[in-house]
Amino acid sequence: MLLGLSLLTQSYGLTPDQKVASLVTTNQVLQIFKDIAHSEYDIKWQDRKGAYQAPNRANNMRFTFTDNDFTAEARDVRRGAGKTDATWKISFGLKAFGGQDNIDLLEKAQVGLLKHKGAFSLKDVVCDYSNEAEGLHQTFLIKRPPVIGNLILELGVTLAGARMEAIPGTNGVKCFSADYDEVIARYQGLVAFDANGRQLPARMEMVSQAQIAIFVDDSNAAYPILVDPWMDMPMTVVPGSGSVQASSYFGNTVGYIDILRTDLGGPAQFYGSLIVGAPYFDDGYMTDNGKVFVFFGQPDSTLSTTANWTASGTHMYGRFGDSVASAHPFQNGLDNFPGLNKLAIRAGHICFKDWRSASLIGL
After folding, report:
1. Measured between alpha carbons, how far is 205 from 194 in angstroms, rounded to an integer?
2. Which domains occur in the chain, in start order?
3. Which of 179, 221, 263, 282 has the greatest count of CB atoms below 10 A from its CB?
4. Residue 319, by phi and psi: left (phi above 0), alpha (psi -120 to 50) or beta?
5. So what's the pLDDT on residue 88?
């Protein structure tokens, strides 16, 4: 349980380092660090890209999602001194699910997002994605049977800087980098179920470098049918790092703020609050741009379970939030007096963020 840190500040004269130490020893703060790490996998709309995107640190991939397909590319293209950057891209798109059941490529999907999960709903098919440390879990929910014949999903494949091979003895394919001939992704783990939960025979075939076919025996099956493959890397190791989850420094820097809260309905009072700098955070479209989170102290001496304020770096590999500190006491409320609203954040240099607008106001 957190102590009343504002009282500690005034009565016992703890240093900022001591106050931070009191914060970070609690289970709640450890959970905050975990939540920040998990939130990096969230699927979000990116205005700069004009698409939905999500990074996957464990597999060193970045995914871009459109109405009926997704693209995978290297999240961090750096492969170490003397090595070629990983500039490959792989796209998989559903084109048809039967001989006369082509997907309307102009149809706009209805999109539903919940953190690291996304559903792209078309008239006859729902493409679901779950972005996890184990890889990208993709499912196709086929709402109706094909007009003619058994269920066959035709996937168009676009390869840039990559080539594809079937994995012998499995229902899967693997993709190699054209530049350094290493396996960069696998598409496998295929299973299929009908509406009654009955597993259906299913197999995947590589038709060409531009097409994959998934055959499902839907004889006497109850629709809708769920077809379920995965995309991952052979090992969850960031290329060039030699270690799993390299550079995932979430909660690498922490700071203490006394926040004068005037938004709780009672008398204004200072509450000990936490700044968390995640300098290697990937906000979805930019590698390791970094992000800073502020969690307000609460009247019951706990912290908010979700961040009350955030700010993101604007440069690739910028490590925004490499160090954080309160430049002044913070005042939360309508009486925003000058000089009481600045947070110092280091990202290769010192800058200040405005509490209200999160806009850069000084270097």
Report:
1. 21
2. 5-40+250-362 (no CATH), 46-232 (2.70.98)
3. 282
4. left
5. 94
